[in-house]
Design brief:
121 residues, mainly alpha, 2 domains, elongated
Length: 121
């Protein structure tokens, strides 16, 4: 197996190297040269793989921080008022739809009439 093929399999086993190249921190040529000199040695690849892991953890912390800020700005009393108002509105709508179906149902004939009989013939 050639060095190029070995490097391809190494990159396939470490997909985090893709983001290093896509972020333009290093080129494929740079990574291949490191692979050519050191091979699969974890110590040599530590700075490339750790940067990806640290950026992922930084992104998680940033998104968690933003979420925490969002919840700090929420006033629980206002949320409870909105929920109560929505429940009342739903109750009114249920009463209106429930009472209207009873009125319509009570006006209709209790026994179905034949189609050919019109106006109590």
């Amino acid at each position: 197996m050639s060095k190029k093929e070995e490097f391809k399999s190494f990159v396939a086993s470490h997909p985090e190297l893709l983001s290093v190249v896509h972020d333009k921190k290093h080129s494929w040529q740079d990574l291949f040269e490191v692979y050519d000199l050191y091979g699969n040695d974890d110590v040599a690849w530590g700075k490339y793989l750790n940067t990806v892991e640290s950026t992922k953890s930084d992104e998680r912390l940033n998104s968690l921080g933003e979420l925490t800020k969002l919840f700090k700005n929420v006033n629980i009393e206002n949320v409870q008022k909105y929920i109560d108002t929505a429940q009342k509105a739903i109750g009114v709508i249920q009463e209106l739809t429930g009472s209207s179906s009873q009125v319509v149902g009570s006006k209709g004939p209790s026994v179905s009439r034949p189609i050919n009989k019109i106006f109590e013939d």
